[in-house]
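Render this sequence as a predicted structure.
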Amino acid sequence: MTGNKAYLQFYLHNFTTTQSLETAIRNIPYCNENTNTTGGLRLTRTEIFNTANGDREDVPNVIVLLTDGNPTWETDLLPDEVRRIKNLDIRIVGIGVTNEVTDSTIIVCYFLFVVD
């Protein structure tokens, strides 16, 4: 989850069932802050996608970027962070949940879906 900064909610190895993971995702609070896409992607790259925290080397890494708007925090650092992630062969799939999502979000993602 991101706002003014990125907040880590859980690691990949915290759950052993789909149901427990779904419950954890549903319980992530909405923080009503800025949109720090850069911070969220950086935190995912460094903390989530490593074997000590549950990443499996034999499984492709995919970031599902769920956003209600365009990046508003650390925007100047976003292109470099996206490049680092893509260089690690991590895919980014974006889901925009408002009509506030525009072209600046599209450049981050391999695929972008917008839902009004």
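Summary. The longest strand covers residues 62-67. The domain at 12-114 is CATH 3.40.50.410 (Rossmann fold).
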